[in-house]
């Protein structure tokens, strides 16, 4: 019996094209289909990457097109890796990464645990909780900017309600101490639902019979939690941590909308600093080396991520 | 621990991937720690070695 889809496709193929294809092997036809994607991948990803690596060894400036770039070896890498200002940017990124991941994992897991109880209206609450994740980072950045306003912002009024301080006595986005926390709060608000969904998938993958066997063995709820739930959800949590880690390492839009890297450079994450070096100071060679350092870090983390993903798949 | 070392000596993928993962994680921690400048300076080369190692060892045969 012939495949009806194949028959329909054969009928739909114009006779001239059909004659041309007839002489080709399956492998050649497969290459014809794959070639545009490979070409696009080479043009958009691989070529710029190789060019960036090449530029990172030069003093090229994109705003001085007439000047011939000079080969300077590893000097750009040396400058970046001994620059205390960039080290501070790395620390700002580390603060952002550590606290967003810690809070998102804790709150996300707690929310998943609650939703997994299947109480009345749990589907409705899942939808409500997931809503922030669906918004654009630019929109989120803008409306949190209003929420953080010292005079009219809702955030300051809520904090005032609990602490009895004056609403205008502190400024989340303007204070050196509070600004790094303000971006942590917004990212946590936006991306906790994502971690919750991954944890929920992990919790739902645990078969009921394991808990039933534990009940028969008279294991307490706490023991069941630490010896069944946590180890079985751990690969999923690891996946969420790596995914959020990689995403937040590249964080740009949300922070630019909220603080623009300020006050001073307290919230200037590496991606914002890189953009300044490349498109404000026009130090293209230097920025290329900076980009390669960040790329290798993200690539390394992505390798671990793929390994964790395979472990989850094996389960 | 012994099986890990044996796996390394027999060029099995699992232990070598684990070692590469530890080196990458160490490089990332060195890049972002706020304590010593020299660790920041050598973080890139550590991550690069770990990443290249990961790519190479992921082609090693699976252990028993």
Describe this structure in words.
The complex is a heterodimer of chains A (315) and B (64). Chain A is mainly alpha-helical. Chain A has helices at residues 4-12, 15-22, 26-55, 75-81, 84-115, 122-130, 137-147, 154-163, 179-204, 208-216, 221-249, 253-258, 270-279, 284-314. Chain A has a domain at 86-270 and 290-314: MetI-like fold (Orthogonal Bundle). Chain A has 14 helices and no strands. In chain A, helix 9 packs across helix 11. Chain A is globular and about 75 Å long. With 64 residues, chain B is an all-alpha fold. Chain B has one domain. Chain B has 4 helices and no strands. Classes of the chains: A mainly alpha (315), B mainly alpha (64). Chain A binds chain B through residues 77, 81-82, 84, 87, 90-91, 93-94, 97, 293, 296-297, 299-301, 303-304, 307, and chain B through 17, 20-21, 24-25, 27-28, 31-34, 37, 40-44, 47-48, 50-51, 54-55.
């Amino acid at each position: 019996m012939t495949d009806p889809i194949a028959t329909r496709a054969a009928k739909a193929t114009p006779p001239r094209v059909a004659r041309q294809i007839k002489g080709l092997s399956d492998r050649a036809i497969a290459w014809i289909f794959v070639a545009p994607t490979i070409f696009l991948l080479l043009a958009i990803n691989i070529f710029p990457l190789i060019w960036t690596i090449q530029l990172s060894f030069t003093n090229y400036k994109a705003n001085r097109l007439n000047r011939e770039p000079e080969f300077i070896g590893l000097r750009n890498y040396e400058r970046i890796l001994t620059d205390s200002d960039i080290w501070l940017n790395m620390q700002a990124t580390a603060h952002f990464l550590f606290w967003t991941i810690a809070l998102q994992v804790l709150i996300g897991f707690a929310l998943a645990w609650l939703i997994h109880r299947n109480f009345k209206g749990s589907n409705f609450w899942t939808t409500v909780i997931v809503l922030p994740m669906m918004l654009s980072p630019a929109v989120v950045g803008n409306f949190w900017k209003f929420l953080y306003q010292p005079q009219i912002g809702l955030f300051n009024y809520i904090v005032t309600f609990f602490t009895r301080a004056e609403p205008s006595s502190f400024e989340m986005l303007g204070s050196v101490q509070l600004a790094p926390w303000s971006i942590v709060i917004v990212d946590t608000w936006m991306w906790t639902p994502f971690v919750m969904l991954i944890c929920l998938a992990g919790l739902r993958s645990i078969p009921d019979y394991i808990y039933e066997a534990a009940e028969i063995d008279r294991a307490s709820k706490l023991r069941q939690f630490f010896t069944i739930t946590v180890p079985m959800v751990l690969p999923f949590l690891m996946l969420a941590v790596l995914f959020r880690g990689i995403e937040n390492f590249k964080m740009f839009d949300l922070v630019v909308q909220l603080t623009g890297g300020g006050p001073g450079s307290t919230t200037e994450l590496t991606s914002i600093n890189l953009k300044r070096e490349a498109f404000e100071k026009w130090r293209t060679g230097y920025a290329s080396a900076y980009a390669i350092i960040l790329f290798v870090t993200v690539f390394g983390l992505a390798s671990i991520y793929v390994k964790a993903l395979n472990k989850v798949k094996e389960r | 621990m012994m099986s890990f070392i044996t796996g390394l000596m027999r060029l099995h993928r699992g232990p070598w991937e684990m070692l590469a993962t530890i080196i990458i994680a160490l490089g990332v921690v060195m890049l972002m720690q706020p304590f010593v400048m020299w660790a920041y300076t050598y973080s890139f080369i550590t991550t690069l070695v770990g990443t290249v190692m990961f790519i190479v060892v992921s082609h090693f045969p699976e252990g028993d």
